[in-house]
Amino acid sequence: MSYAIDQLPDLSPLGGHWTITTARDIVDGRPFEVGLAHLPGVEWPYQPTNCPIARGSWYLDGTLLLCDGCGTDGT
Ligand SMILES: [Zn+2]
Q1: Would you call 13 helix, strand, or coil by DSSP?
Q2: How do strand 56-59 and strand 31-38 relate by DSSP bridges?
Q3: Where are the domains positioned within the chain?
Q4: What is the pLDDT of residues 26-44, one digit of tens each?
Q5: For residue 68, is pLDDT > 80?
Q6: Model pTM score
Q7: How many whole angstroms from 31 Cα to the centroid of ligand 1?
Q8: 57 C-alpha to center of ligand 1: Å?
Q9: Ligand 1 center to residue 13 CA distance, Å?
Q10: What is the whole-number distance in angstroms between the Cα of residue 74 and the centre of ligand 1?
């Protein structure tokens, strides 16, 4: 699951912002649009389309889960 792309939480408390990117559904391989977080000082090691990481970290007091590999919203 993730936030709807028009309902992504405000990243300004972290000094960041969103872009919208296309990722592939891990189950059926279909592309879908998802928010990609840009945070100051953070370089995500993977692109959303080839991210092998199935693990995330919580931000914004536990209301936002970002993939540790590519920074997409996985809340
Ligand atoms: Zn990822």
Answers
A1: helix
A2: unpaired
A3: 12-67
A4: 788 888 899 999 999 999 9
A5: yes
A6: 0.87
A7: 14
A8: 11
A9: 22
A10: 8
